[in-house]
Known about the structure:
One of its GO terms (molecular function) is GTPase activator activity. This protein has 15 helices and no strands.
Amino acid sequence: SSGKLRAQVMRAGGNPAAAKADTETVVTLVTFCADLNRTFPDNVRFRKTAEPCLQRTLYNVLLAYALHNPGVGYCQGMNFIAGYLILITKSEEESFWLLDALVGRILPDYYSPAMLGLKTDQEVLAELVRMKLPAVAALMDGHGVLWTLLVSRWFICLFVDILPVETVLRIWDCLFNEGSKIIFRVALTLIKQHQAFILEASSIPDICDKFKQITKGDFVTECHTFMQKIFSEPGSLSMTTITRLRENCRAALLAQG
């Protein structure tokens, strides 16, 4: 139950900061209550008329996480992550701990107030495209397109509500087993597979539209083939390279203020 989950969370976190956490959570509640109706609006189980209504379960998980990790609290995008976990596990408690693994361990600083981890990884993707797909990088640079405009939802939502459900499930299996490198593999594969199509773009709106289109169609629907492609198409992608790029990109972002 949500009461049991909340009690467990407060015990796990220790209670000295509980009063402060509760105060900060009021602000958090206002934000994520607004997001509840925007979470999977086409899914009948998330509608207010559903019985049971998963909006309540989502509320409980997000509130528990805000209490558990007040440094993060709640950030837009977490509603899709938590909602997806609830659909998969059908358990508040399992969803909470999987959310904690993602936000706290696998993707640190993605959902913190400054979102430094997220911004860093978007810049890392830009560098990887520059290394592996220079023609696409040149197109972006030529039009002055910021990568965040194109891929921020890929990173924030971890491809939920972007790629087909079955494909996202397979990607998440890899995410929990192998860590965040899989996000770069998926992004690079989408871009490489559709490179010729992207290079037809002649304006910023055109580029944005093409990046939306490459997440649809048979290529991403055939999840078995797609998963094989993400391990072959991007070529070598070592954690050493990613760690080095992260350090450089993070330092550059911090220097910008």
